[in-house]
Amino acid sequence: MAAGTGVFAEILDGDVYKYYADGEWKTASSGKTVAIINPTTRKTQYKVQACSQEEVNKVMDLAKSAQKLWAKTPLWKRAELLHKAAAILKEHKAPIAECLVKEIAKPAKDAVTEVVRSGDLISYTAEEGVRILGEGKFLVSDSFPGNERTKYCLTSKIPLGVILAIPPFNYPVNLAVSKIAPALIAGNSIVLKPPTQGAVSGLHMIHCFHLAGFPKGLINCVTGKGSEIGDFLTMHPGVNCISFTGGDTGIGISKKAGMIPLQMELGGKDACIVLEDADLDLVAINIIKGGFSYSGQRCTAVKVVLVIESVADALVEKVKANVAKLTVGPPEDDSDITPVVSESSANYIEGLVLDAKEKGATFCQEYKREGNLIWPLLLDHVRPDMRIAWEEPFGPVLPVIRINSVEEGIHHCNASNFGLQGCVFTKDVNKAILISDAMETGTVQINSAPARGPDHFPFQGIKDSGIGSQGITNSINMMTKVKTTVINLPSPSYTMG
């Protein structure tokens, strides 16, 4: 079934996708649209509505009133609807995956995997939510000095209100549901602002929630230009929490957002530290997986290899041999390396490559680019004065820095503004734990490439990589607050006589 046909027909108005509010698919009053460019063809693939600030205001009001009723809906009923949405999402994986291929040039097999993983995430969240939110806490007063047992304290978790969810282009379905599902199970309402590249996949995903039969106004999806509605959304007084995944825009949002809980996962410069005793075949496989899957367009991609000099030549040869096996081409062919998301991204990556060339990096492959398609490139003998040593290319270009000691590797890792993930390869588990402790990153993987999943694991960054912690359990907890009720009993002398 092609996208925009059959069950998805109602989300289209001619060739323009509608936005979603109050349980209905609507066209924007502006009459304007935003074009979505296919990264492979570099031509307009889809068009979405350009919502106005006035429409955002309406959506916020709807979300606020729908949330009040939803908070009173029994927890098991919320979970039931989430399970239903998960099943519908998986059922429609083919047309949604097709959108991912065309909008963000995600290889076809990875696109299907993203949709299925998203369905699994929704179901797990429903189960986890029932467990977490079904439990309260009971405290007694005589545990604190000077008190009798005359107060009973009951605590439970209550929803925050309206959650603004802003996912990035690279996982527009998975990183949207990782915000939507915890918000809904916890009793919140949702306003989703999808990325422009990835908006149509997001609208298809929202339609699956629509088909599951959630109450009107509870889930909303507004599309439009960030320049017109971005700040308006993030600074809106109706928003009670923002969950954002993306680049350094998040730093600006956090400064403007005001006194509400923020969950921010921003960029990374994930370091891979390789010790002399590491299994180099394992390292090479993980560098390929970590550095080049989805053309390196992942926050958790390996972004810099810090290898002990004595094994550097051997490792570089192994990685080079594996890079040569990567297929390059359109996402429809399931190529390993597909076009990066936009021309401006490709230009930025090229700037880093040319800077490295000028400053004397060794090119392990010839630099090759056609349009948005950049061939995979390993840069050896990268030095700290090169931009690629610090900046995040978000493309299939990976720098190798040779180090003389573990301390040098840790120092480079910690000197970065980023601190999302990192990894260390060694057969000595004691060393691995000590290095992990010393690395200033939210997560360290031992003998594996960085990765966000499994989705119930905590996931967080430090420094410019973000605030708050994600992962299903953490998100549910973050999207609730504690409510306390204290029962005051008469004093013992009064009751006992």
TrEMBL record:
It catalyses: D-glyceraldehyde 3-phosphate + NADP(+) + H2O = (2R)-3-phosphoglycerate + NADPH + 2 H(+). The keyword Disulfide bond does not apply. Residues 25-484 form the Aldehyde dehydrogenase domain. It is found in: Cytoplasm. Its main location: cytoplasm. GO terms for cellular component: cytoplasm. PROSITE patterns: ALDEHYDE_DEHYDR_CYS, ALDEHYDE_DEHYDR_GLU. Belongs to the aldehyde dehydrogenase family. InterPro entries: Ald_DH/histidinol_DH, Ald_DH_C, Ald_DH_CS_CYS, Ald_DH_CS_GLU, Ald_DH_N, Aldehyde_DH_dom, ALDH-related_metabolic_enz. GO terms for molecular function: glyceraldehyde-3-phosphate dehydrogenase (NADP+) (non-phosphorylating) activity; lactaldehyde dehydrogenase (NAD+) activity. The active site is at residue 265. Its EC number is 1.2.1.9. This is NADP-dependent glyceraldehyde-3-phosphate dehydrogenase. Keywords: Cytoplasm, NADP, Oxidoreductase. It comes from the Eukaryota. It comes from Vigna radiata var. radiata (Mung bean).
